[in-house]
Predict the 3D structure of the following.
Amino acid sequence: MLLSRDQIARRVAEMGAQITRDFAGQTLVFVGVLKGAAIFLSDLARQVQLDSTFDFIGVTSYGNRPKPEDETKAVTWDSTGEVRLTKDVDQSLRDKNVILVEDILDTGLTLTYLKRLIMGHEPRAFRIATLLDKPSRRIQPVEADYLGFTIPDKFVVGYGLDFAERYRNLPDICVLSE
Ligand code: IMP
Ligand code: MG
């Protein structure tokens, strides 16, 4: 176990309080990245005391995502072609305060792609909330505005994060053993 359900709950409450302060008196749209962010979004949104709506966006990578032992090859790939949209948002984000909610920021390819996509909607404000960050694997220079935990370069599961679609419902975040 890397992060217990209690540690996660405490940190998510702090993040929610921060968002509540930052956007006091305004409305928000939480946009969750399917499927990993679903659990984090539902906990985070309940810690934000503001008038809010939810939306969801789906992405997939083309499968040439770098493996940890294969990092050097990654920098030569076309990072813009790496990510593909599988589900767009349902509502217009124009003039909205958008909080993009992601489970983990790893290479940064996904959030770089999604940031560009959402900025095209001309939101009033755009912020990234991610529960986890693995900065050692970054390829694209994207940073979160609201970050739960910085973690080492380990593959983690639970609290929404999967390995081949499994383990998303583990209440704690665990390192996948060999
Ligand atoms: P990025 O585009 O490399 O930043 O990747 C972000 C996506 O990769 C996340 O939304 C996850 O779906 C997946 N991912 C990266 N690291 C992990 C991990 O340790 N466990 C589970 N999924 C991960
Ligand atoms: Mg994901």
Observations:
- DSSP finds four helices and eight strands in the chain.
- Residues 71-80 have pLDDT under 50 and may be disordered.
- Residues 33, 36, 103 surround magnesium ion (ligand 2) (CB under 6 Å).
